[in-house]
Amino acid sequence: MSEERKQEMLALMEEAAAQRVSIRKACQVLRINRDRVQRWKKRNRKGLRLENGKPGPRRALHALLPGEREQVLRLARDEEYADLSHRILTVTGWEMGRFFVSFSSVYGILRAEGMTRFRGVHRGHNGRSLPPVRKELSGPNQRWAWDISYLYTFERGIFLYLYLLLDEYSRKVIHWLISWRQTQEEARRLLEEGLLAENILDLPEEERPEVFNDRGRQMKAKSIRRLFEDHQMPQVFTRPRTPNDNPFVESVFSTAKRAPEYPGRFLDKENAEGYFDCYFPWYNTDHYHSGIEYVTPDQAHRGERERIVAERRRRLEQQQRWRKEVNRASITKSGILKLASEGLNQGVPEVWTDPRSSIGGHPRASDFGGQELRRAQRQILPQPQGKNRSDDDNLSFPDLTGYSLIDS
Known about the structure:
Oligomer: single chain
Strand content: 5-15%
Largest sheet: 5 strands, mixed
Structural class: alpha/beta
CATH superfamily of the domain at 143-292: Ribonuclease H-like superfamily/Ribonuclease H
Order of helices and strands: HHHHHHEEEHEHEHHHHHH
Radius of gyration: 33 Å
């Protein structure tokens, strides 16, 4: 109900009182709870507005602590992590034990500081591509994908070529090589060394991976097709001129060429091999991949993805419970929030342990007594007033235009 409507009803109540109609009778006619009218009158006498307030506590009990916000900004402003997206930055903070907050909270902090703008030189994805339908994977080495990408040199029209073999489940780069030529011999060498690296030939034939590739002449070469046939590995060709059918390899190429350290051009084959000798080990072991819930490809390949994600979720929930206790305690005893935030700023590792313990000198909410804690909760949580209190916005009232209480 709007504030104007409430004022109109109070005016009708005053008119009824002047005509010696009781407030109980007036409320029955208007079909409104008497306690609500009394509350409106009380607020009116104090000069307060009658507009509807927002439900719930004024401050969320799981609101971020000041120390957590400072830790996020400190990590984001570090030059070493300046090129990370807000999601990768969040996972990095989790792994380092600096903070445990959600993706959206980190994004909100960075956005408030104007730190969310894209700093690269490439345009973003157009968002219109659709991936092909694939059967669900349950583990590594069930589907591989491979492709070849151009690498610029300092000579116009002369290119190096990056051959890449990828496991789709874990996004791990199984094998790669650099060549001056696009030939079936180089492609066969890539695949054979990948088979040896993962011991695929020791697996039963029905457990060997299927392989996705496009329709380039190297992929359709007889020697390549015979290699897959001999090892009982299905070869799947994508649609012509449809790179979205093989998106995972294309994504790795894009990630590699958008890296801040990527030189753009290479002097020779040795120069390119020197760069990718450093890049792909980092990609496999240190890169938090958004497509596999921000674990590294090596971790996913070893089957550790579910355990790591579950542990992160547990620690996030634990930290949320800890925030609630600190924020509740700050209401009953002034200075507790300050003490907790100082502990976070000092990087006390115990603050991330069980919030129900007082390790590290941080008091528990229960240390102040259950009675005081309940009293504090009553101060911040909305309490029902009157036995029939209901939401103003969910009630309907008759049209009062031209209506007189005396006539009834």
